[in-house]
Amino acid sequence: MSAVSAIAPARPARRRRFAALGWSLRIGIIGILAVAALAGLAPLIAPYDPTALGLASGLTPPSPAHWFGTDQLGRDILTRVLYAGRIDLQIGTIGVIIPLIMGVVIGLFAGYYAGWPDALLGRIIDIVTAFPFLVLVLAIVAMLGPGLRNFYIAISLVSWVAYARIVRGESLSVRGRGYILAARSLGYSNARIMFRHLLPNVIVPALVFGMSDFVLDILAGASLGFFGLGVQPPTPEWGVMIAEGRNFIVTAPWVVIFPGVAIIVTSFFVSLIGDNVSDIVRRVRAP
Amino acid sequence: MIRYLAGRLALILPVLFGVSIVAFMLIRLIPGNPAVAILGERATPELIARVENQLGLNLPIWRQYLHFLANAWRGDFGLSFFYGQNATTLTLERIPITLLLIAYAALIGLAIAVPCATLAAVRRESAVDHLIRLGFTATIGIPTFWLGIVLALLLSVRVRLFALGGAGTGGLDTLWHLTLPALTIALHISPILMRALRSSLIEVMDSDYITTGLAMGLRPVTLLISYLLRNGLTPFISVLGLNVGWLIGGTIIIEQVFGIPGVGSLLITSILTRDYSIVQFVTLVLAFLVILVNLLTDLAYAALDPRVSFQR
Amino acid sequence: MRIRVTALRVVSCFAAVMLVVPAAMMSPRPSAGAAAVTLTMVRNADMLTWDPYHTGDDPSIFTQMVAYDRLVKLAPSNKDVQPELATSWKMSPDGLTATFTLRQGVKFSDGSPLTADDVVFSLTRSIDQKSDWGFLFSPVKSVSKVDDKTIAIHMAEPFAPLLAALSTFAASIYSKAQFDKYGEQMAQHPLGTGAFTLESWQKGSQITLVKNQNYWQPGKPKIDRIIMRVVGDDNTRVLQLQSGQADLIDFVPPNQVQLVRGSGLKIYAVNGTAVLRYTLNETIKPLDEVNVRAALGHAIDRQAVAKNVFFGLAAVARSLLPETTLYYDPNADPLTYDLAKAKALLAKSSVPNGFNLTVQLPAGNQTYLDTATIWGNGLKQIGVTLKIDRLETTTLIQMRNAEHYTVFNAAWTNDTPDPDELLGVAMDFKSQHAAHTFYNNPEAQRLVAQARRELDPKKRQALYTMLQRIESRDAPQIYVVDVPRLYASSPNLVGFAPNSQGKYSFEDVSKR
Lengths: 287, 312, 512
Prior knowledge:
Number of helices of chain A: 12
Helix content of chain B: over 70%
Strand content of chain A: under 5%
Oligomer: heterotrimer
Structural class of chain B: mainly alpha
Strand content of chain B: under 5%
Mean pLDDT of chain A: 83
Number of helices of chain B: 13
Helix content of chain A: over 70%
């Protein structure tokens, strides 16, 4: 489990351990913390109000007054990118955590009990994965109405399957191992075996997958924005900013470039962490 | 192997059945029905009631589903409310374009990912490896519709290299028209492919027989082709198979952006216009496709890797 | 079980199968001959039907205008109509019967002759009050054949907008034999006398029209084939025009107009086809109060909408009518951006300190969103908080039709230059609760009916000025800007001239 504790932010006692991590992992961790800090401190550091219009100064290119320029209604893009970060980090996090919990619990049950619960889950997984991801999310959002909460519901209903599939596969291969059998013979309750003994051994691949899922969730938000069903105004969100600014890509590229860079930078840091964690896991697991 | 195949094939039907139920219910749970969509802004309650009656939407939902099943059994998937044409004709007409786009994108994705992953794996932890990985890590965050527009601007307007929009008139013209969209999708999926391929190549390179091969004095290039690709490709093909749903999802927006008459864009517009019969039929076709690709993947996997047998 | 195949062979077989099979499944489409001139138009949406009886969407309306002719055609002056399938017409002194002399020797595109029976049949369907557009012809009782060259239209009362209504797509003339053969399926199989006729139609992606070999105007049309392709994405349409793969596009995004013009392409901006407006639901308090509605109407910065949303291409609206409508009066006490006045009006209402208001917008429409954002900015300053709710389009229309909405954003496209269409829908309570606002003003209702009957243009002008004044005073709908309809073409396209209602025809179009 060293892999998991390694992602935790460095505390003084662990400073040496943090320094021992690969440089790319360090960049990833510092980077994502910086992004989170910028987003979190947006009300303090952003130069303007994210919803304040400047109708006289629409589409001004980057300048000392507006580092990232303004959009067609004269809103400051730097401010909006900073505020949007709060929503996007939230989307990435919640969009991973809820499906992760759902998927892990369901996958664990199916993998542990095997037999018909497993067969049933297998078919459900087949059914959900037979739909293109975006189509299901779009249909659910269209059904519930666009908005952040409904987006989480849609993402959770669709992407738990990926986690369940991973955890189920891992559990199926681990359930016959000696220590599980031993725990059974000791008369431990099924719940205890599942969550105390099975879970720690199967959760790491799911966590690694979650790292890449973080980015995919933000992109799914952008895709919904493409169909106008993304996060609702006046809340700025990177994906929606790009989707709605795409008509300006030729005439006022700064409207789309800066939120785009924000997504790329964030996903870059998250992917660095994810890559390293999976490398570490592989090394730890290798005999 | 025949028993294995039969078992796999037998599972297709219940899954398709499940897909049909989910699609059927989901599209009907979205507020607003085709009567409203067809009549548009001028719809009056009387007109809506009349059209609902015509379309059979006033029946209880389970009866509508039974009707659907009975008709589907006879190969009749209903009429598109919006286009007034058979859902099957409309869909099947568009399937080849989407298949071609997916295949083309997968090939370009391969062409990008394989050399990069091989290079990265061979020069592991070197500057080249880091550069390749950084590059791919950065591209994963670019929304496809943005990438598509930028590529079109560069490769179709600035330099008139590729056709833009539509699917051409068949044959080479179609390939010429599909190159830009396929490239966009390929760039979108290549980071996932590259990563999976690199890590599986590394796994193989760490294994004994590569070390042995090197010790035997074989040229690294020979080793690469004969051993590496054969063994490294197995997980890669399964990654491709696993991501086929993702790949299809990617084509949906790209078809929309480039105005390609494929099933992806048809499905999205049909959801938005509540064209029930189209949504039902297209989801079934796509689901069948996904299942089929997964099956083929497993077969190819077994063919490539002698260690995997068809027994389950 | 072992299958020994080299990896490369498997992969290459895979690749070959994946590429070749779908490519082979696609039948190559017929391509035009060498000398034929083809025009490629890229539009933002496909049409849905060729039957005017059941038509609701703009692409169908616009394309039907191309393949069908009508008795009369809107004159370029916009004030009048000119002959098309009718060569002359006469109104009876009591204003109750109009007789039309039909052009002789006109043939349908399949070579069969156009007869008075076809005209009577088509128009009888047009005036059917159950049809989607019957309301345009409400005073018309019947259409009859006088002789082989003449038809007559009979009305219950004098009907001033008759000729204007006959120039709309809803009065298109098509073949009776074709309808007898196909019935409702005529929606897929049109047969008209227009300059072009349908060759093939890939639903949702492409319509191919070919020259009508039997067209009645000698020497026209000048092009052989029109391919209308559907590309929903605004950027892509512009890029296709720039890369030379389209000759003509519609719905140019306003912010790119300058750029397109700068790169040597032609821009066609038609103003006066539609007014962007907010429809207020008077069953929701406090929208039942006239002071509240007028205050809301004075709180929108129309100049800013024209500049920031439409990049100077839209005109500030000064009436519910677009500016090219007959009897348009910009000086009938219009609603203008005036926050002091808005505050004063609100002070006289039951909510002097403001209230919370919701506007429901179709998801994905950036123009509507930006306009509402500017409105919200003005409203904030008079104490009203505007919440913008975006809903998926069909859901939204459902809500609007069920009259479960608060404020709805619309921009109906005008079909005739006569104000009867728009004001009838907006101010006559009988017309779908004054098109879902529940605005019920007996005086307005009376004036609408009176203006429809009035044949003297001077008196009609006075009546419509009164109606526009009442509309601005009562503000059941708040008009914002006159939305431009924007087309762009390559520089070598000649003769493309959309009319004042934005509709286009191709008989005079050629490529240099």
